[in-house]
Amino acid sequence: DVKVTQSSRYLVKRTGEKVFLECVQDMDHENMFWYRQDPGLGLRLIYFSYDVKMKEKGDIPEGYSVSREKKERFSLILESASTNQTSMYLCASRRGQSRWSNQPQHFGDGTRLSIL
Amino acid sequence: AQKITQTQPGMFVQEKEAVTLDCTYDTSDQSYGLFWYKQPSSGEMIFLIYQGSYDEQNATEGRYSLNFQKARKSANLVISASQLGDSAMYFCAMREAHPETSGSRLTFGEGTQLTVNP
After folding, report:
1. Which pLDDT tens digit goes with each residue over B67-95?
2. B104 Rama sector, left if φ>0, alpha if ψ -120 to 50, beta otherwise
3. How many Å lie between the alpha carbon of B92 and the closest alpha carbon of chain A?
């Protein structure tokens, strides 16, 4: 089975802190994704990466950056945390580099981040 | 840009009955894919079923089937013989090819909270 592991299940940080959320997958997937989930808004894509050192902006990249130095690890960085970044953050990975791929994304268990 | 619409914020069904969760989409692409995910209260996202735009048959996976009506741009999830464990949030998502790279991404709907009553 595919395993996507997020470093923390719950995290509490203070406004202005630099926050790192880590995600590791063990299936050699090319593609990795970061989403945030808020009630009534579904999942919104922050950033994604289809290869090592490659990254693409999603729908809501403002206030975030990402790093993918190794294939299995995709980090989300909140440069200066703000209260409106309190949310559930979900990481996902997917096999295959075809843009027409029918492979599903596999998700981690999520990190519930609170910014005080 | 693609858009996914799930018009039912909440649905209720009696145990052992069937239920249909609605999903409509909007895209100008000829090739696309539709996914359904289940999210129990514990938070993990579980992949349920996939339908490709060129698939001639409606997808089925156990008690899950997808009622795909291409002309109407709808991809409704049908759960047969509902179980208490089916109570969860359900998300419809569409695959979108990235215009400038070889990658693709998913766009999600807002979700439908399904409650199965005993």
Report:
1. 999 999 999 999 999 999 999 999 999 98
2. beta
3. 10
